[in-house]
What we know:
- A hairpin with a 5-residue loop joins β7 and β8.
- The chain has 183 residues and is of the alpha/beta class.
- It has five helices and twelve strands.
- The relative contact order is 0.24.
- Helices cover 28% and strands 26% of the residues.
- It starts with a strand and ends with a helix.
- α2 packs parallel to α3.
Amino acid sequence: xxxxxxxxxxxxxxxxxxxxxxxxxxxxxxxxxxxxxxxxxxxxxxxxxxxxxxxxxxxxxxxxxxxxxxxxxxxxxxxxxxxxxxxxxxxxxxxxxxxxxxxxxxxxxxxxxxxxxxxxxxxxxxxxxxxxxxxxxxxxxxxxxxxxxxxxxxxxxxxxxxxxxxxxxxxxxxxxxxxxxxx
Length: 183
């Protein structure tokens, strides 16, 4: 019988609720990176994280010769990066030909691969594409289904990392460190 359980089961991918999201050309960022040969030439990355996953993927595919557009509903691409990282990222991404599309929230994906965007500030809609592959970089859902069972056994359960809330790697490392110190 353990004194405590540290649960770090991660998160599962999710798809935003927008029309056309189930199109086979729409894939999660993890699938794009693990199976790069499945990614078409014209690539749109929908970034709702504003962190490394979408940005590293954009650079990776642009440097492989893909035409990459990185779209975000935020004020600018990489809004949550630290200044030293955003400078490096912009230099590398722009040098590789990545096109940035800020204040652009995807609201529909057409059967031909065209995407309708809405400006979250003005409400103005625009269309772009078609895209061969649309890569999703969106927050996942915590995989915390074991918590209730562990708690029912009367065992102290500390949920960390993405199982607590999908966040950056740094937050998961901090969670693990804090849990280790508390045990």
